[in-house]
Design goal:
heterodimer; A: 100 residues; mainly alpha; Helix Hairpins; 3 helices; elongated; B: 672 residues; two-stranded antiparallel sheet; 71% helix; globular
Chain lengths: 100, 672
């Protein structure tokens, strides 16, 4: 039996990697993958706590997160592909049309 | 009969709409006949309603018809409803009756005017507005009519608007009336706050049950007095009426004799339940406003040379009598004199119009004379009007004026006696200046024959150099079809006046008949002959004159002597030439006690400066505050918007640092 804190640790590490990647990298696609990584790190944490506290609510939340992530992927990837088609090689810092 | 009430205002409205659409197509004279028929039809409906009412008991004579709810706003509900009771039907009878005659007259008078159909369009709209004013069952509906007649009077006074003097006379009437409208509006607001309704029946109920306390009632009376002084041309708001003579003469007869100027009186009589509750000084105020106006206007009328200006000031003066009647609680006398005044003053205005037309648009009485030879019908009817307004028995004016005088005397207070004295002096002056007008116009030498007089008159005018005078002479400019004489008249020494067509003389004869026998509606002999008093009793209650028997007869004898004295005085001055007329026709009278020019001077000088100061305050302080706040927000948000770089990584770092801060905070809290 692996202790729950191991899963939490893995989740924290994954989240840290994702957050760091999101802040450091400029490629929109990579940033997008980092967000997915962070979401799944949170999912892992939820499941770990659900198991430990014997509360099914945590697992239910995971399903919601999965659904939201799927929807987000659909929209987000669509936007990224559209941008890449118009401006090949664009990175996140080039896109500042919405500035105040 | 209840169901046809709406027809009374609807017919003139239909006439108005038809003329708006098809007036040009109908042309002259058919558009005039259509308008006359519309008002005549309305008169028929009023007459039918009147007869129907007569057949009912006195208590059942209030008809109330609600067409629909006009403004439903929470507890504030205004319905499009008509209230026909003896008071409003009396008003409607003479509005539509005299109105029909004036419409008929206008067909003759406006003959040849290029804006003939438009004139009748306005006339019908005016009659519609006036009927709404009278028939409306609440203050707001009355206000609708009130503003309607105001707007129509503006259109009609400035009808020949190509002359700037006429246009500015129209504007003057409009602006002066706005001051009164302020009183009406604030009064309506206060009424709603105090009673919770602006329906006349609710107001009367609230006044009877004591829901309106004395202070509120007094404030209401003062506010509605302001409204009435505007519409009914009392001091200090009377200045518009003399200038309003710039309009075509039928307009003067319709608006400034029979209908619009009476609406202030109607309003006060309609609110008589509130007047009963108000403190006595408010009523005394009404009476004295009337008395001072009556006397002032009568003195001004003495020196006027324009035939219509004399009648205009005479109207102001007679309206003052009505205010005296209302102020002494003598509402029946007010309505009585209003009706008889509508007859004889409309008659005289129309008669003066006939004279003006016969004399080639000359309005200066000093160039008339001996017209009875050329215009027998006009002269005969005008003389009847003169005897009626002077108060010679048994003509209508005697009975109604005598009742006002008796009512003032019968108050028994010092104020009442003084009012009586002022009114008596005014009656003397009335008889005097009306006689002067008749003698100058219809008797004496034919003054226009002397060519050199023309030059003299002009020289005098130039010497006087008064804008008011100039306005009067410019009055009929636009109507001048062929002549380019800048004084509007084309009266030459070889001019032969001729009688007006039948469409003009028929109304004169009809009105002369009414002016002669109009007194029978309220003869003071016994209770049973006071028909008008009995008729109006369900609405305005009973009123004791306070004088009866021998005293009443004595007062009537005094009034008659005064009337005859005034006429005799005029005979001495203008026929026998025993006194120099210039000693009586003082300059201060001719200039209207300088009231008008003082107001103009004040408004042009200090008033203008005050308004400029207010404008400055509004622009710099009020607008400055508003714009300043907006400016601060705008510039600070401009600065703040720089933080929105549009770069997604900046936002990410923001979110990350925020998350770290929250995390640190939670850990610190948990560990402590």
């Amino acid at each position: 039996m692996i202790s729950p804190s191991f899963f939490l640790a893995v989740g924290a590490v994954l989240f840290g990697i994702g957050a760091a990647g999101l802040l450091i990298r400029r490629n929109p696609l990579v940033m997008f993958m980092c967000i997915e990584l962070m979401l799944n790190a949170v999912n892992l944490t939820f499941v770990a706590f659900a198991n430990k506290l014997n509360d099914v609510g945590g697992q239910v939340v995971v399903f919601f997160v999965l659904v939201v992530a799927a929807a987000e992927v659909v929209v987000g990837l669509g936007i990224i592909v559209a941008i890449m088609r118009r401006r090949p090689g664009a990175d996140a810092d080039d896109l500042s049309l919405m500035k105040g | 009969m209840n169901h046809v009430l709406w027809l009374i205002p609807a017919l003139p409205l239909a006439g108005f709409l038809a003329l708006v659409v098809g007036g040009r197509v109908l042309g002259e004279p058919r558009s005039g006949w259509l308008a006359t028929a519309a008002v005549g039809g309305s008169f028929a409906v009023v007459a039918a309603t009147f007869i129907d009412m007569l057949s009912k008991d006195a208590e059942a004579r209030t008809l109330h018809q609600t067409l629909f709810t006009w403004i439903p706003a929470g507890t504030f509900k205004v319905s499009m409803g008509f209230l026909a009771d003896p008071l409003s039907i009396t008003m409607c009878l003479f509005i539509t009756g005299v109105g029909t005659l004036i419409h008929l007259y206008s067909i003759g008078y406006m003959h040849g005017d290029e804006k003939f159909p438009k004139f009748f369009t306005y006339l019908n709209l005016f009659v519609f507005s006036m009927l709404m004013l009278v028939l409306g069952d609440n203050l707001l509906l009355t206000f609708l009519g009130w503003e309607g007649v105001g707007a129509c009077s503006y259109f009609l006074i400035a009808f020949w608007h190509t002359d700037p003097a006429n246009a500015s006379a129209g504007k003057k009437a409009f602006v002066t009336n706005r001051v009164g409208d302020w009183g009406f509006m604030v009064g309506t607001f206060l009424m709603w706050t105090a009673v919770g309704s602006i329906n006349y029946l609710d107001i009367a109920n609230a006044a009877h049950t004591g829901d309106i306390v004395g202070v509120t009632a007094t404030a209401l009376v003062v506010l509605f007095l302001v409204a009435a002084t505007g519409k009914s041309a009392q001091i200090p708001l009377f200045v518009w009426l003399p200038d309003a003579m710039a309009g075509p003469t039928p307009v003067s007869a319709l608006i400034h004799a029979a209908t619009m100027v009476t609406s202030g009186i109607y309003l006060l009589v309609r609110l008589s339940p509130v007047l009963h509750v108000a403190s006595p000084w408010a009523l005394t105020l009404i009476a004295w406003v009337g008395a001072i106006t009556a006397l002032t206007a009568a003195t001004i009328a003495i020196s006027q040379t324009d035939i219509k200006k004399v009648l205009a000031y005479s109207t102001v003066s007679q309206l003052g009598f009505l205010f005296i009647a209302v102020g002494t609680g003598n509402y029946v006398a007010a309505i009585f004199h209003m009706v008889t005044h509508a007859f004889f003053k409309a008659l005289m205005f129309l008669g003066s119009g006939s004279v003006i037309l016969g004399m080639g648009h000359e309005q200066d009485m000093r160039r008339y004379g001996n017209l009875r030879k050329y215009m027998p019908i006009t002269a005969g009817t005008f003389i009847i009007g003169w005897l009626a307004i002077a108060g010679v028995p048994p003509f209508s004016g005697f009975w109604s004026k005598d009742e006002i005088l008796a009512g003032a005397w019968g108050q028994g207070t010092l104020s009442g006696k003084l009012l009586w004295a002022v009114a008596l002096v005014t009656a003397l002056l009335t008889a005097f200046y009306m006689s002067r007008q008749v003698f100058l116009t219809f008797f004496g030498p034919e003054k226009w024959r002397a060519a050199e007089t023309h030059g003299d008159v002009h020289a005098e005018e130039l010497a006087e150099g008064e804008a008011v005078e100039a306005d009067a002479h410019a009055a009929d400019h636009g109507h001048d079809d062929h002549g380019d004489d800048h004084h509007g008249s084309h009266l030459t020494p070889d001019h032969t006046p001729k009688e007006s067509p039948w469409t003009m003389t028929l109304p004169l004869v009809a009105l002369a008949g009414l002016a002669m026998v109009g007194g029978v509606i309220n003869l003071p002999f016994t209770h049973s002959t006071k028909l008008l008093e009995q008729w109006l009793e369900p609405v305005i209650g009973t009123h004791e004159l306070g004088v009866e028997g021998p005293n009443l007869i004595a007062l009537a004898v005094v009034a008659t002597l005064v009337a005859v004295g005034g006429i005799a005085l005029a005979v001495l001055v203008y026929v026998r030439r025993m006194f120099d007329a210039d000693k009586i026709e003082l300059d201060v009278f001719a200039k209207g006690w300088y009231i008008d020019s003082s107001i103009a001077k004040f408004m042009g000088g200090p008033g203008r400066k005050a308004f400029d100061a207010i404008t400055w305050f509004d622009k710099t302080i009020i607008d400055g505050a508003v714009n300043g706040v907006a400016g601060i927000i705008s510039s600070s948000s401009g600065e703040l918007s720089r933080t929105q770089t549009g770069r997604v990584r900046n936002y990410a770092i923001g979110i990350a640092s925020g998350a770290i801060v929250v995390l640190v905070y939670v850990i610190v809290r948990m560990s402590s």
